[in-house]
User: Fold this.
Amino acid sequence: MRADARKNRDHLLAVAGTAITEQGVDVSLRDIARRADVGLATLLRHFPTREALLDALLHTSFDELTAKAGILETSGSPDDALVSWLRDCVAWTTEYRGAVVLMAAAIEDPESALHASCVTLRAAGARLLARAQAAGMARTDIDGADVFALVEALAWLGDQRSLAPRADHLFDVVTSAILTSPANSDTEGETPPRTRS
Assistant:
């Protein structure tokens, strides 16, 4: 990509990021183009669909969250690593209002521009969960898909203005329900961990 084309693309992404933070993912593409001082055709030439724009905008954040999961896999206690990563995921999805709805749809739709990024992110969470389960620090009747769903649910709470003040408290409730003490992890008849990510 030529330097000027790259500059124009980066400008569009910066403007789109601000617009989505303010108005949510349903912000008009025409409005984004107007804010960027370009025509809609120019925006669509770079990003033919809303999902393509969101994928480009969110890709860096997905990569950062996935990379953080990789670091946490080899550092700190498994329970703290899982909770820290979950907190970062929820905070990030709440930053872009409405993104969680698209993520929930994209994870089930291989044709979605966001699908691959969502699958990679879910797998990263699944590895952190499996590490905590192996250490006896997380319940074993949940899997990576459940963790991804919990991120979506907690982010949805943050999107609701009337519920946002309770979001931190409910995050603590949910994570305490996921975690177990090592002493409780050897109970007889415990469900073995699932491997689906």
